[in-house]
Amino acid sequence: MLNEINIDDVLFLDIETVPGTPDFESLSEKMQELWTKKAEQIGRDKPDLTAGELYNRAGIYAEFGKIVCISCGFVNGNGFRVRSFYGDDEKLLLNDFATLLNRSYTGSRYLLCGHNSKEFDIPYIARRMLINGLKLPDILNVAGKKPWEVRHLDTMDLWKFGDYKHYTSLELLATVFGIPTPKDDIDGSQVGEVYWKDKDLKRIAKYCEKDVFTTAQLLRRYLGMPLIKPEFVVSV
Question: Between the N and C ends of the chain, which has fewer C-beta atoms within 10 Å?
């Protein structure tokens, strides 16, 4: 698989998600009831916590969270171009991202790539598009496709080498491969607070873009290619 990859045809991506409302009390009565059921499952390791206290975890579930940023990037010669779709209007940013995919990433030559993207980012994007009434771009629509027709790469999946119980963070792999770590500001657990309390979407987008670039650098290491110098990264 690695030998067949043309890195110029890869769109790297990462998303940032938050709980759909500022707090548990802001949910509708029905959604509070449904989150309470969900919290019973995910809070088994912390039985003393209430559904409200566990609500900070809601952002990782597409039914209870929302996307506030999608960052994507591609290799451009010796450089890297990165772009972020972010804002309070999830439907608008999803529609803008879908427009990019439909315009520039159709056909079997193109690939989407992220870290743990097969398990998280891509399914989350697809689910939130459907919830928002948007049509899935072909590269995201895996229904009825054979495994070799799904044009998704995952740098964590590639690192598993068939070990399906193995999880390795992007930060750890970046360190192992000598790639400057992106975790120099906030981390994923803080995104909800930065969004709902600090209202700092630009900070979230900057953090997300660092992960996209690091994922691209990691794939280059897998392919035996030199790293792109940070000064050759351009935001568009």
Answer: N
